[in-house]
Write a structure and sequence with these properties.
- By secondary structure, the protein is an alpha+beta fold.
- It contains four helices and 16 strands.
- It folds into two domains: 138 residues, Nucleoside Triphosphate Pyrophosphohydrolase (Alpha-Beta Complex), CATH 3.90.79.20; 124 residues, Nucleoside Triphosphate Pyrophosphohydrolase (Alpha-Beta Complex).
- Strands 1, 2, 3, 4, 5, 6 and 7 form a seven-stranded mixed sheet that branches. Strands 11, 12, 13, 14, 15 and 16 form a six-stranded mixed sheet that branches.
- Bound molecules: zinc ion.
- Zinc ion binds next to loops.
Amino acid sequence: MIQDIFPHKWDIAYYPKEPKADSFILFFYQDQLLVIKEAAEEQHLPKIIYPVYAKVKHWVRNATYLFSLDEKEMFRVEILDESTKQELEGSIAGSCFEERRFFRTAAPKEYGFAGITGLHLNGWYRKNKFCGACGKPLENDQKERMLYCPACKNMVFPRINPAVIVGVTDGSRLLLTKYRGRDYKNYALVAGFTEIGESFEETVAREVLEETGLTVKNIRYYKSQPWAFADDILAGYFCEVEGNAEITMDPGELSVAEWVEREDIEVEYDDTSLTNEMICYFKYGKGTLR
Ligand SMILES: [Zn+2]
């Protein structure tokens, strides 16, 4: 999956650090991140290289520490206006700003993951400059990744939307879906957000019932995945249909919901999404994913 970057060393913990001469600076403009592209030898994928601090020192004010990758410390700098954005792009050869979807297939993989995680964090920082309770400016906490209101003591933690991905099985059949009105046209699994006051297992049962009319049993946890493309944390579950396997699709959510026999599932392992891994896991079995 996209977050599986071992043996690269990833440290997401927050420390109140200042950039040094060998730090990496991630420049964000709205919901885009500056990358420097090199032609790749294989697969025609662009390579990402982040600019080092020394080259761009005069732009680095109010840099916020994000995370480290292979001991390289990475910082966030927000570009606020179009003219500075253009000046920055013009001053670094081969650079341009890219949106989140670019990072799904960007190479090398560990930089793609750092990029999309940076965009998730950037979105949270960008949309939480003022306290939602009293309207005063928020400040970075010194101990953990949290924004703090000195006026009313409000604490704002990073926004991560919890959601489930559900593989519903009926013997040798898997329930595959397609979502209505989305760019993503491949087969998906039943999925949905967890409500306040609900466990993941309850989300699984509710979403399957709402989207397909099916009742499920034997709900088992599979794996989880940070999915920064939508600010999510995804929890994957398998379960079995209980009783009547006839689907009553919710046409407001889905365009397709159908049982597909294991041998008829058309899927290739892409090492990116939990959904893809779970469909491959059902089709090919454990130990065949790489
Ligand atoms: Zn406040």
